[in-house]
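# nightly structure sweep
# worker-07 picked up a monomer target from the shared queue
# config: single-sequence mode, recycle default, output format = structure tokens
# input follows
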Amino acid sequence: MTMDRRDFLTCTATAATSAALVPMLETVSGAQQGTPITRRPRIASINSIYRLRSHAYHIAGRFLFGYSHNGFHHQPPFDLVRMFNDQYPPDDLSKSVCPKHGIQLCETVEQALGGASSLDVDGVLLIIEHGEYPMNDRGQILYPRFEMFQRIVEVFRRSGRSVPVFVDKHLSYDHEKAIDMVRLAKELKFPLMAGSSLPVTWRIPEIEPPLDVGFKEGLVVFGYDRSAEEVYFFHALETLQCMLERRRGGETGVASVRFLVGDEVWKAGDAGQWSWRLLQAAIRRCASANFGEVREQVLRPQAILVEYQDGTRGAALNLVEAVSDFAFAATVEGQPEPVSTCFYLPPPPGANFFNPLTYNIERFFAGDQPYPIERTLLTSIQLDLAMRSRQRHGERIGLPALDIQYQPPANSGFFRGPFVDGA
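# output follows
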């Protein structure tokens, strides 16, 4: 039986993750003999809603039912023991799923963690995405991630113990709240992970830029118009960041962001503020690419332009009529042609791009931080300031909060290999 380099690396990563789980299997005393026994780590899921296609359905559901990894079914070595939902829509599934699978459906966040002053779980999923929540005048959905996070932290304080917390998507719509979440995690010294599925989903082709690559400019293109603009722009910023952070010197911070709409997007491209060449290179990677000229197809283009402290430029373009995929392209110093790849998202209802995200959450709960929380803090701040720029008709906004520096992981953790089970 032969194994190529990719299979070897994948198997090695899987073995490393399994090995990392061993310290989490708590040793307790046997009732009679005093013989050490082990138990599986326990997980609590704090959700906005649990219905078909909600993020909680896809992430918490995979901890319960498992998912495909490397062509085979993978069952996470964790027990999902409790669930709290902030809302119960008519199509709620938690009231039928939880009793059937021995999951306690709780009335409060505190109860889901073990009690107001006790904590008996080993990891917390905070999945506040979807549901009926108000929107502010900047077009931001006021998801109560920060408020739920505070309630989790309060249990940590009262119990004198803390555990790893995963926050789905951006930390908060408000950059000051996002900063405070990271501050609280560092104060109480518990691991914090957040972010999108895009950085770890499949890439076609499978490009892993080396650390200290000579990126000079990067661009992400996507197409989305089914909800608030910020919903998918966050994914685009995470896609852009997980690539450009690998540039020479690592992440050195952002100087400013802008949000442009309509003809202002085309004018910025014509003025060289983003690259038409990179846009074409990214679109060529998209199976969904439309025919004809982009400028003639797209009725209402949108763009977030990012200026980094070191002079690197980034752009995220929402071109609904041109593509429905996410694709990245970049110029590399000393290389005549751009590098580019499509970030592949298997479609609903399975939405198997949640497989790699869940796998990396497993790594995180096992004690292996897949990437620094500073990445998602930076993209959370960028998104908030971009939405403020949108409200101010494209004003360039820069704040000291954008001065975030960190080093990217050597292995970005994205999935290779088959998208579905092969056995």
